[in-house]
Amino acid sequence: MAILLLLATTFLIYIFVFLKYFKFPTGIEANSELFDISVVIAAKNEAGTIANLVNSLSKLDYPENRFEVIIIDDDSDDDTFHRVKSLIADTNNFSVLRALDKKYKGKRGALQVGIEKSKYPYILITDADCSPQPGWIKAFNQKFNGGNDFVFGLAPFFMQNNFVNKLACFENLWTHILSFSLANTGLPYSAAARSFGFREEAFYQIGGYRNTMETISGDDDLLLREAVKHKMKIGLVTDEDAKVFSYAKNNISEYLKQKSRHTSTSNYYLFKHKLLLGYWHLLNILFLFSPVLIIFNTFWSVLFLTKMLFDIFLIKIKMKKLNYSFGIFEILYLQVIYDLMIIINYLLGSFVKSKWK
Asked: What are phi and psi of 336, to 5 degrees?
């Protein structure tokens, strides 16, 4: 009984942390000093989606002469390079380059090319299929004004009415709850490359991407890991007008490939982060299957009910922060699938070789 009470207590402690530390500030301060910022994007086979990105970046609420956009075509098989060149023909602060002579494999190699070509001391990164909101750069600029070396922001999916999308959005919401809550307690461990930034000097101080080569993916999480190891100051952008939206995968096969690739990066987190996340996910799996243990102790049913009720409560009060909407029944079945997918994605990511497109 004592062990069961301990499990329930630690579960509730996690829930308390998520409730208290996953929240938004009032907004972007208008009196921040404006820094010069370079936006770097790696693009591979994005001819069909890159127009949305260019359109969104052209609407950013930031002086045109204080930021540049560098898009790196990473040896695309389609017409990405010429498509971008056509889209930016009438702009003064956009450029497109080919990723020649990359130092590193995959996406981080293309990003490295862009970072080295950038002319400003602050770097923002997003993906080629994303739509940053107008206040994106301004919100990051405010965090850089606060002395932060590395900064990451909210990166939700556009919500659509199909099962794979809802599963992806549900997983994305939990990812944000976990990563932002722990970051606000002083334990940052994960950041989405769709909304990520840093001082260029700090980037080179931690060795850039040189120490993040354990896996082809995870350049964002592993770069953040190095920043934590070097005791860099890390800030969070959670302003409503600074979200970076993108579309989730439309079929289960592509979704599984993407998630297993991302999940495999957790093998290379710092030990304290693996311990915290591992314990949380094990608790959820244990509570999920607790009804089969009722024959040993009826208190197991209390653990199951505790999990279900708090899952519903937590998701219901946090989902609107990322523009999501889930019904109670959806939360119940998606939570079960999400808990099981943690195991499946981890196994796929650990044993199946992944690649960047």
From this structure: -65, -50
User: Tokens 């009438």 identify what position?
Assistant: 90
State how far Cα 26 lies from the chain centre: 22
- Residue 97 has a CB neighbour count (10 Å cut-off) of 15
Number of H helices, E strands in the chain: 12, 9
3-state secondary structure of 123: strand
Query: What do you get for the CA distance between the two ends of the chain, in Å?
Result: 50
Task: Report pLDDT digits (tens) over 185-196.
Answer: 999 999 999 999
The SS3 of residue 217 is coil
Q: Given a cut of 80, is residue 32 above it in pLDDT?
A: no
What lies within 8 Å, CB to CB, of 62 at 6+ separation is 34, 37, 137, 138, 141
Q: How high is the mean pLDDT of the chain? A: 90
Domain chopping of the chain, boundaries: 2-20+268-351, 24-179+187-250
* DSSP for residue 36: P
Tell me the DSSP string of 52-63: HHHHHHTT-SS-
Q: Is the pLDDT of residue 352 over 60?
A: no
- Tokens 């199946």, residue? 352
Measured N-to-C along each axis, helices 163-184 and 299-318 cross at an angle, to the nearest 10 degrees, of 90
> In degrees rounded to 5, what are phi and psi of residue 246?
-155, 170
Third-level CATH fold of 24-179+187-250: Spore Coat Polysaccharide Biosynthesis Protein SpsA; Chain A (3.90.550)
CA distance 134 to 175: 24
User: Does the structure show a pLDDT above 90 at 265?
Assistant: no
Q: In b/e form, how buried is each residue of 122-133, taking b as 16+ CB within 10 angstroms?
A: bbbbbbbbbbbb
DSSP category for residue 158: P
